[in-house]
Amino acid sequence: xxxxxxxxxxxxxxxxxxxxxxxxxxxxxxxxxxxxxxxxxxxxxxxxxxxxxxxxxxxxxxxxxxxxxxxxxxxxxxxxxxxxxxxxxxxxxxxxxxxxxxxxxxxxxxxxxxxxxxxxxxxxxxxxxxxxxxxxxxxxxxxxxxxxxxxxxxxxxxxxxxxxxxxxxxxxxxxxxxxxxxxxxxxxxxxxxxxxxxxxxxxxxxxxxxxxxxxxxxxxxxxxxxxxxxxxxxxxxxxxxxxxxxxxxxxxxxxxxxxxxxxxxxxxxxxxxxxxxxxxxxxxxxxxxxxxxxxxxxxxxxxxxxxxxxxxxxxxxxxx
Length: 320
Ligand code: NAP
Hints:
Blueprint: E1 2-6, E2 15-19, E3 29-39, H1 41-48, E4 64-72, E5 84-88, E6 98-102, E7 106-108, H2 115-118, H3 122-135, E8 143-147, H4 152-161, E9 167-172, H5 175-183, E10 188-191, H6 197-204, E11 210-215, H7 218-225, E12 229-237, H8 249-253, E13 257-260, H9 268-284, E14 291-296, H10 300-309, E15 315-319
Parallel strand pairs: 8-9, 8-11, 9-10, 11-12, 12-13, 14-15
Antiparallel strand pairs: 1-2, 3-4, 3-6, 3-15, 4-5, 5-7
The protein binds NADP nicotinamide-adenine-dinucleotide phosphate.
């Protein structure tokens, strides 16, 4: 089979397409024939080799993908050949024609969802769900700010909230990004490159502030988030690409809670809960992954440049 192989850490161009042996499932493993693989920022960090717990070389990147079950190990009980699935982790990596997964790391892909969309499910929707509900415990009636709502996780978070009794605010830095927030059910959208957007958000809430913030770039925003956070507000830090000077008194005076989260730390029970919610939302149509770019697997290097360098507008997927 064809797969992207990383033999040395470095720039996106270290990802090369190679002919490798197709893996075989054993025990509780499932072999998935992939129709699409999802690209996430974390794969770019891992590729540099300086992120905590770097993969052992050589490796094939990717945890997210979607396709059809090709073969199953003899202990597999939940899946059979031909099932449409999305992946929520992978033993061998999803930037490939086939990948091996543990059976617990697959979710059922409803017939109304394309494989390209399926490749954009797990990391974005699971992160959005965990940040909103398993961490910040967002409740209908509350006002939620998705700070960085034009990308994979942000759009997923907006979709989890829209139509469920929340006041939903998103931010982006392009006109298309702002439009996307409204198109996905956001009640208001602001430009996070405008220094006054914190004040604008507070004004939008009538001066009360937002109850929950899902923060995609904490090293830039965490201190200023308190300008628009309500009393007893909660912030979940999802993304951060550096450090900042922070005044703890801000959290103290608002009785605020700051949660950190990494999807890698989720328990199997938490993941099972997310799979159930994802299947229900996809089947109902309230979750509808937005694909901005679909390119051949051989162009994986370009996908890593684009996910880090261009304005976000949904997911980038690779087609084997
Ligand atoms: P993405 O698709 O590349 O989107 C990045 C988002 O960040 C876009 O909405 C972008 O908006 C926004 N952004 C840029 N500058 C910003 C600013 N100053 N303030 C607020 N938002 C800003 O990435 P993603 O997949 O959604 O992931 C978002 C972040 O979460 C990444 O850092 C990723 O590594 C992290 N993440 C963490 C976990 C976890 O387990 N903790 C899981 C998944 C992702 P514009 O492009 O419109 O400016």
